Amino acid sequence: MTMRLATTAIHVGQDPDPVTGATVPPIHVTSTYTQASPGVHKGFEYSRTANPTRIALEKCLAALEGGEAATAFPSGLAATTALFANLRPSDSVVSFGDVYGGTYRLLEKVFRPWGLDARYTDDPAPEKFDALIDKTTKLIWLETPTNPLLRVIDVAAIAEVARARGVKLAVDNTFATPALQQPLRLGADYVVHSSTKYLGGHSDVIGGAVVCKRAADAEPVAVYLNSAGSCPGPFDVYLVHRGIKTLAVRMDAHCHNAFALAEHLVGHPALARVVYPRLIDHPDHALAEKQMRGGGGIVTIVFAGGFSAAKRFCERVKVFSLAESLGGVESLVNHPAIMTHASIPKEVREARGITDGLVRLSVGIEDVQDLVEDIDQAIG
Ligand SMILES: *Cc1c(COP(=O)(O)O)cnc(C)c1O
User: Fold this and answer.
1) How far separated are the first and last CA of the chain, in Å rounded?
2) How far is the CA of 380 from the centre of ligand 1 (A)?
3) Are 225 and 208 in contact (CB under 8 A)?
4) Which helix (H) or strand (E) holds 327?
5) Which of 1, 110, 118, 166 would suit a FRET pair with 100, their CA atoms being 20 to 30 Å apart?
6) In terms of domains, do 228 and 255 share one?
7) Domain interval for residue 288
8) Strands (E), 21-151
9) pLDDT over 90 (residue 2)
10) Amino acid 348: pLDDT
């Protein structure tokens, strides 16, 4: 039976425990597995290599994204590392410029010294990616919507470029989640997640995953995990899996609240700009309508009064918490220039529109009226 997303999220990898009938499978807290005779076992030998709790999550993630296989990692960046580490020195990656700061740092501080070249385009047009590809290029990397400016990149069009040039395409789907877009169905080869964000959804765990369209591509990812030792623990994968069960309803609520808040803020005299993909004046509005089932839970606002107005707002919110990260049930505000994006040089940051007056809202699933009132009192 092919199940729809909300059903998949609850049932895949959640078969009742065959021993006890426990409806929710147990967390397998074990490092090792007892063998009947040397080499005779039930498919598990050592929990770095495989653990039933992790496999349950991996099955669910693969089904949600429409891939043949998934591999869970202890963080989003560990998942990202697995894909870059499977390239070779003197290969190159073509990436969108405005990617997650940690991805940029990983490419520049870890993989460039190791021999991997990274090239960036600040223009998301497919021909700009195409122009940076040469015979050393093995992977295109992109993230959509981007952080914090929420540009939407045309996954199907870039997948076309990747296919024509014989290069793989990886999409970081952390912001949209499979509830809003499934990049593998649009032609991507890999989806990467920071499950710390919407998948886990409760700001209580760090996790990541690589989902592969083809099982053959997942094999080197699993070999990397086992060889490099990048394995998530059973409690953490359990928390991510538990969070995923409510992904569909949470994403609906995030989208609803974020859109309502964005519409409420449009035209506010204290704000120079309100950015949300579903707003009619968003530069990628038409593409967002086509590619995404909702606008997501992030709203970015730019204060007309610059840094001092943004700082005052961040200090005054009460229901929102001033904190890094995003994607949890609770609403957060973040000042990217000082917090999440501080490692990007000021000129680069400003050229990308991440000014000192910009604030990113991760809109949670509280009552939207309380969020509106909190924002109003904090701006006012
Ligand atoms: C947080 C984040 C990451 C990194 O994930 P960690 O779990 O913090 O390692 C990667 N990409 C995006 C889009 C993120 O928001």
Assistant:
1) 53
2) 32
3) no
4) none
5) 166
6) no
7) 248-379
8) 69-73, 92-96, 117-121, 137-143
9) no
10) 86
